[in-house]
């Protein structure tokens, strides 16, 4: 395997592409549009990572979070300035799920839910912490 590419199913793909451009500085690589105008498939790039996006196809049981009521997957964006991108996403229409905060594992992070039901964690590394120290800090959370 050479790489894994996230694939998001979204009820309104065209609207989502524009949102991701504003919220996360996405670049649209291409889109495939059906004759009636529905975006069947598109690819965007965010921070060097490709993300595939497609419309819903109920006849194949392919549905997005808006239709099924939730999602079980999130996308983690590791960036130079997490606070800036977090607030940019909120300004574009995302909803804050977890506010920006320094984390025990060495990141500053927060998470948002986009208008289409997908979750995004946005983080910046503020301290390099080895796995043993992360485990120690994690267990310390349970002491209090």
Task: Explain the overall architecture.
Residues 1-125 form the VOC domain. The protein has 4 helices and 8 strands. The chain is α/β, with parallel strands linked by helices and 144 residues long. It has one domain (7-140): 2,3-Dihydroxybiphenyl 1,2-Dioxygenase, domain 1. A 4-stranded mixed β-sheet has the order 1-4-3-2, covered by helices on one side. Strands 5-8-7-6 form a 4-stranded mixed β-sheet, covered by helices on one side. Helix 1 (13-24) packs antiparallel against helix 3 (82-92). The radius of gyration is 17 Å and the shape is elongated.
Work out the number of β strands.
8
Coarse structural class? alpha/beta
Question: Architecture, according to CATH?
Answer: Roll
Mean model confidence by pLDDT: 95
What is Rg? Answer: 17 Å
- Please report the number of helical segments: 4
User: How widely separated are the two ends?
Assistant: 43 Å
- Strands side by side in the biggest sheet: 1-4-3-2
What does the overall shape look like? elongated
CATH level 1 name: Alpha Beta
Give the low-pLDDT segments: none
Q: SSE order, as H and E?
A: EHEEEHEHEEEH
Largest sheet: 4 strands, mixed
The residue fraction in helices comes out at 25-40%
CATH topology (fold) name:
2,3-Dihydroxybiphenyl 1,2-Dioxygenase, domain 1
Write the layout of secondary structure elements.
Layout: E1 7-9, H1 13-24, E2 27-33, E3 39-46, E4 49-54, H2 65-68, E5 74-78, H3 82-92, E6 95-102, E7 107-113, E8 119-125, H4 131-140
Parallel strand pairs: 1-4, 5-8
Antiparallel strand pairs: 2-3, 3-4, 6-7, 7-8
